[in-house]
Write a structure and sequence with these properties.
Chain A has helices at 9-20, 94-99, 122-136, 156-164, 211-218, 257-276, 296-300, 326-330, 343-358; strands at residues 2-5, 25-29, 42-45, 47-54, 57-64, 67-73, 75-79, 83-84, 92-93, 108-112, 141-146, 168-178, 181-186, 192-195, 199-202, 206-207, 245-248, 284-286, 306-308, 314-316, 336-338. Chain A is α/β, with parallel strands linked by helices. Chain B has two domains: 2-114 and 271-332, 3-Layer(bba) Sandwich (FAD/NAD(P)-binding domain), CATH 3.50.50.60; 119-267, 3-Layer(bba) Sandwich (FAD/NAD(P)-binding domain). Classes of the chains: A alpha/beta, B alpha/beta.
């Protein structure tokens, strides 16, 4: 069974791909989260209390309706997407015109793309929508005001098409908007334009909800901006810093719809493979008699493996340890070692490698 | 008989082979070049000194793993000249210096990648007749060798210009689309160059800043650093002189000609060659430019041959294609 977290588009694609590859998905969404119904996928609403074990053999404790249930899962995919932040202004937003029919708008329409943390897809959505409105009503005048036109890859063709249809793009950073009037400074030329729009559509700031909650439950990290921290490049794409836990969706990286599809399918594929290949690494161990409880190992570990136990000594969680050797080398009391490998042997091995590099 | 035939040994093809080998599915990787690795083979690390996530090391890691795997067979210096059959039984005809041979596979992953734009085709930038005009790939090679010098004089460069969108967003040269990766790699490359040569003056000519991930303010921030100039302009031409002169219009509609020691052209990605023929023989489809469209069962496409993309996305697509192929093979049994 593959645990898939999230209620957005990425989780749908990942679940579909897991089924295609002959594995069973279990989708987990938070009780307050909205999600789309998928007929073939078991979806549970609950909270993840703990996620222990190793790749191929994880145990997930999930609280469903105040009852704790245990599931055995082979791997997990965190497929959480960003959601538009609810704004306090009564502006019409890009996502609301996708849901409602604003095709019949007329007069002067301004699409303002200046949100602080926009979705990567917002520019192409705006361009496509503008073309649709213009096709429906050729008399209307459409402005797309943005500091930068970000139509990536083949989306550029839609941008060219929009320009040919007479949609006006203004690159502007300084936009003043009050009582139905707009003063826009075209940033390349410095010219000031006055626009009186009949309708203003804006893009929304995106936010990741509950990322900290998931990160804690899965023992993975977040970036400062609240997005999931990706695994180091050497671990490959769609990885987190924990083996068997994979990341996709816009909560880990800014993605266009097509990139989101690729990312979710890649994460599902890696998760299916991981669930078939159990992994057991040689964990570092603490000699409690030597341990001075200095917290060095707790602070340096990238994988949250060491913690101080009830005896006041360091203890390394076997499931989380990646055998990186950082704590083994940094422990001031030499209390940490790999089973069967002495500290001196380890240092000699490192010296050998360094010597080879210099020769 | 191999389970999966992978055409192209670049980032996407090798990633697919590695994922299949993790599932103990045998595959054969066919590459036309003498060395496998594709376009991503000769890229330099952009760390300065912390990782910038340029992903240049990622295909190197994958290639090393693939070489060790008993489930992957590598065939280099061979072109796939023809393909026949259908889902479950394809025959690929290979041509190498030793003649023509045939390989039978059950599923195919096309990962033929896409070539970079030949800068000589855009005559305005004088790539073929001025030694100091380089492509971004030439600069990468120079970085790997560890010796950054002005080609015509051999001296350390004092100034450098980067011209974005060469062979992208350019309908005249058959690429009206954006190549998506150039903004990402150019800025990282420039930062790396300035790490090696802190005194160098860099001018970055760009049209729109389209970064990977959420780096929307990165270019504007970088433009505030001492010795960096960010100019929104598409230079008209390079004029050959004692130093190459870049002629461009400023935002105030004023025409300027500035000399630089080195001019770097950030070349875009072109559609793969002869893709229509390969696609039709495998029952696949291409769009009007020659990029593969992902559709159907049995034969899959991954990497830059489905549209311009960065290393990371290519690797992801390779992994996803491997998953699809593995699922297809299970369905056959």
């Amino acid at each position: 069974m593959i645990l898939i977290v999230g209620g957005g588009k990425s989780s749908e694609i990942a679940a579909e791909e897991v089924i295609r590859q002959g594995a069973v998905p279990l989708r987990l969404v938070l009780p307050e989260e909205t999600f789309s119904f998928l007929p073939d996928v078991e979806t549970v609403k609950g909270r993840l209390l703990s996620f222990t074990g190793v790749q191929g053999n994880f145990q997930a404790e999930i609280e469903i309706d105040r009852e704790v249930k245990k599931f055995n899962v082979g791997a997990a995919v965190i497929a959480v997407d960003e959601t538009p932040k609810v704004s306090d202004t009564d502006c019409i937003t890009l996502s609301s015109i996708l849901e409602n029919n604003y095709l019949k708008c007329s007069g002067t329409i301004v699409i303002l793309l200046d949100a602080k943390k926009p979705s990567r897809a917002s520019h192409i959505v705006a361009v496509e929508k503008a073309i649709e409105i213009k096709d429906n009503n050729p008399d209307c005048r459409i402005y797309i005001i943005t500091p930068e036109v970000r139509t990536f890859g083949l989306d550029e063709l839609e941008y060219c098409k929009a320009q040919k249809k007479g949609i006006i793009f203004i690159r502007a950073e300084d936009i003043k908007h009050s009582s139905g009037k707009m003063k826009v400074t075209d940033s390349p030329s410095g010219k000031v334009l006055d626009i009186t729009p009949d309708l203003v559509i804006t893009d929304e700031e995106q936010e990741v909800k509950n990322a900290a909650l998931w990160a804690k439950a899965f023992s993975i990290n977040l970036y400062e901006d609240g997005h999931f921290r990706l695994g180091n490049v050497s671990r490959g794409p769609v990885t987190s810093m924990r083996n068997g836990v994979f990341l996709c969706g816009t909560a880990s990286r800014a993605l266009l719809p097509r990139e989101m599809d690729t990312s979710a399918r890649a994460a599902a594929t890696r998760a299916v493979t991981a669930s078939q290949t159990p992994l057991m690494l040689n964990s570092a161990e603490v000699d409690e008699e030597k341990c001075a409880s200095c917290m060095t190992c707790v602070r340096v570990c990238l994988f949250h493996a060491p913690s101080i136990n009830e005896k006041g000594k360091s203890e390394i969680c076997r499931d989380l340890c990646q055998s990186c050797g950082l704590c083994v080398n940094l422990c001031p009391a030499s209390a940490i070692s790999f089973k069967g490998v002495s500290r001196i042997e380890l240092r000699n091995a490192v010296d050998d490698v360094l010597r080879c590099l210099h020769e | 008989m191999y389970e999966v035939g992978i055409i192209g040994g670049g980032a996407a093809g090798l990633a697919a082979a590695l994922e299949l080998s993790r599932r103990r599915v045998s595959s054969v990787v066919i590459d036309s070049d003498k060395h496998i690795g594709g376009l991503s083979r000769d890229l330099c690390c952009k760390a300065n000194p912390v990782c910038q996530r340029c992903d240049a090391c990622s295909p190197v890691d994958i290639r090393r793993e693939v070489r060790k795997s008993p489930f992957v067979t590598l065939i280099s210096s061979s072109d796939v000249i023809d393909a026949s059959g259908g889902p479950g039984a394809y025959t690929l005809s290979l041509q190498s210096s030793s003649g023509i041979s045939e390989i039978e596979v059950k599923s195919v992953i096309v990962a033929i990648g896409s070539p970079t734009f030949d800068a000589a085709r855009d005559a305005r930038y004088r790539y073929s007749d001025c030694a100091d005009v380089l492509t971004s790939r030439d600069l990468e090679t120079m970085m790997i060798s560890g010796n950054i010098s002005v080609p015509s004089t051999g001296k350390t460069p004092q100034s450098l210009a980067v011209i974005q969108c060469v062979g992208s967003r350019d309908a005249k040269h058959g690429a009206p689309y954006c190549s998506k990766v150039c903004c990402k790699y150019s800025l990282k490359l420039v930062k790396r160059v300035r790490k090696e040569l802190p005194e160098i003056e860099v001018t970055f000519f760009y049209r729109d800043w389209r970064p990977s991930d959420r780096e929307y303010d990165k270019l504007a921030e970088y433009g505030k650093e001492k010795g960096v100039h960010v100019v929104r302009s598409r230079p008209a031409e390079v004029i050959i002189g004692s130093r190459p002169l870049v002629r461009y219009a400023t935002v105030e509609d004023e025409v300027r000609e500035d000399p630089f020691d080195i001019v770097v052209l950030a070349v875009g990605l072109q559609p793969p060659q002869n893709s229509q023929k390969l696609a039709s023989s495998l029952g696949m489809e291409c769009n009007q430019y020659g990029f593969f469209i992902k559709k159907g069962e049995g034969a899959y496409a991954a990497g830059c041959c489905t549209g311009p993309k960065d290393i990371r996305e290519s690797v992801e697509e390779g992994i996803a294609a491997a998953g699809k192929a593995a699922a297809f093979l299970e369905g056959l049994q």
